[in-house]
């Protein structure tokens, strides 16, 4: 069940993070029922404490999740988001996070993790208000949460009587970035208390963009009123956020290619992906786009921007006799923009037609003929996320019974979640220098050696010639559910069921790909300084306006058994079945997936849902070792599922199906076998957290194709934190790595590892000084897909380079 403080002792009104040497003693509140500890729960669940979050020093929300076993994140996109987050091999080639749900205080911020240009990692960023991040994989994620078949990642706020607080300033030492954090808690009276905190950050970022790519603030808080006689509480939570953060797309890298093996990644002659941000060039900081009416307007390339206003109410009431009722409700207004210049280097010859050439459109070489060997020939994308609003309510009654040797609990609940997704997309083909440092725009001209008429404006050769659609659809999920747990001495049995009733209502319109007119752009010819008018093809929203009016349903179930071998050791087994519905991605298809009345066509029905079967075996153990305390969570898993979904990436169409199409339908099936490990150890001042996932994933690109190794999923991913505290100081090391990965192009890419260093010292009461080093050895680490363009050169996403920051925290 989504996290309710209701599952905790009413007097505390919030679960507290257990000591590091007893993480299995924590009460599970995410996608679970009852007041059960991790040791007594037949699910795979791990927690990251607020200290873990700070010490891991991830460069993005998605990278933080690499510290959680089973979670698979390809690439390091930056804190703006747009990462692909998978779990235990559950992911699709169409991108996003379809099987992973990110929650804040027990309710999802977006119901679908793969909203096109609105992914779940846009909206949630780690904050000092997070007491912990609780992560459940498989199991009851299918039955006690919606659209979260693979995993639920729940950011749980501080809500207790946290008297006092702190103010902290973080500052980049070798890069331009500053962040101010604060948190404050206290009592209003004996029965009422509050917590509030947030941050503001600004700067050019680790990759040294030419302008501020970070410019964000977020504030979260809550007020709790306890009822008399320990009957429960009511809590109001709120969040206000206005964020602007970068989404990086890598640049041209070099590597050693031997047959199908690729190793030795490093900078190319034109770019070092660790510390350059070609998508955020001062010479390409804004781009002309055409709206639905064909009007041209200039849009800043600011990365990913979000606005959120959320008000949430949690109520817990104990009626006595074992009966409690919980309600978790939220209303949210959300919107944003996706403004990113994608990078895709290739030979210059591939960007010009016969008899044509390129000139510098701006910069110090403006007007001169471009003679470089490579250009970035990709898309500048502007998407308005006009509405991402939602309203949600999760109501549950929990009855705990005890009849001697027969005891347990029953939970009955109902989730209502309605989210409006209204967007319009605008994508222009865009030509830029392939260099990483302040690339200039390149204009196509009709003659050789920089002569002839201009065929572009500011690097744009047309408007809306890439992805192009608009839609306004409200998706509604009604989900009654039930869970029964029975304790039979050392044996615990549980079963849960959820009926998902899913509906979509609204409209969608795409493009036929044909020009609907001509845009006449008045501009200065950089060669002569004269004003000229350049006519460019204008595409628009000229497709059929599709009505969307459909409803689907599915039954999810999960059964588990746990045997408590000793007070320190338990084993469990679980089987689950769930369905994840397709949402706005149904609108991509040409021809349409919808009938004239808005119902799903036969092909639409084939693409409407992804059924998933999962099986788990695990053990959990805690105890003493060498004078310290350890915990171990080990889970073996097997899953299988099928998908059929529209793909808008030409690269994926080529890699998976071998066809040269801009869009295609990928109808595949997957199976996955693996092993997860999460362990902690504490001995005096020594603290250790380790996470690892072995994954053997296979995919068939069509229903009749043979299985082959899945691309972009490493066999082994691992991460860890180790620290030592002595008196008023703490020092530690983090690691985050993976073994070799099969790319979508059939090549095997060598593994990589990132190390980090952190240190804290408290020279006086109320003062803490901190030092964090990200990518300590400045490794050129590839963690996602790469594409080969020849001559040992690749377009690749690379982890950000060494970044040193200091901090000062004043507590009170």
Describe this structure in words.
With 812 residues, the protein is mostly beta strands. Helix content is 3%, strand content 56%. The strands form 7 sheets. The chain has a 25-stranded antiparallel β-sheet that branches. A 6-stranded mixed β-sheet has the order 38-39-14-13-43-42, with no helix packed on it. Strand 15 and strand 16 form a beta hairpin. Residues 1-20 have low confidence and may be disordered.
Task: Give a quick precis of the structure.
3% of the residues lie in helices and 56% in strands. It is mostly beta strands and 812 residues long.
Number of structural units classed as domains: 1
Tell me the CATH topology: Maltoporin, Chain A
CATH architectural category: Beta Barrel
Which homologous superfamily in CATH is the superfamily? TonB-dependent receptor, beta-barrel domain
Strand content: over 45%
Approximate shape: globular
State the end-to-end CA separation.
Answer: 36 Å
List the main descriptive attributes of the protein structure presented here.
globular, Maltoporin, Chain A, mainly beta, 812 residues, 6-stranded mixed sheet, 4 helices
Question: What is the secondary structure topology, with strand pairs?
Answer:
Layout: E1 44-49, H1 50-56, H2 61-64, E2 71-74, E3 84-87, E4 100-104, E5 107-108, E6 130-137, E7 151-157, E8 164-172, E9 177-189, E10 192-203, E11 214-226, E12 232-245, E13 251-258, E14 261-267, E15 286-290, E16 296-300, E17 303-320, E18 323-341, E19 345-347, E20 357-360, E21 374-387, E22 390-403, E23 406-433, E24 442-445, E25 470-488, E26 491-509, E27 517-524, E28 531-538, E29 546-566, E30 569-581, H3 602-606, E31 609-625, E32 628-647, H4 650-657, E33 664-683, E34 686-700, E35 708-709, E36 716-726, E37 729-738, E38 741-742, E39 748-749, E40 752-764, E41 767-774, E42 782-790, E43 793-798, E44 803-811
Parallel strand pairs: 4-7, 14-39
Antiparallel strand pairs: 1-6, 2-3, 4-5, 6-7, 8-9, 8-44, 9-10, 10-11, 11-12, 12-17, 13-14, 13-43, 15-16, 17-18, 18-21, 18-22, 19-21, 20-24, 21-23, 22-23, 23-25, 25-26, 26-29, 27-28, 29-30, 30-31, 31-32, 32-33, 33-34, 34-35, 34-36, 36-37, 37-40, 38-39, 40-41, 41-44, 42-43
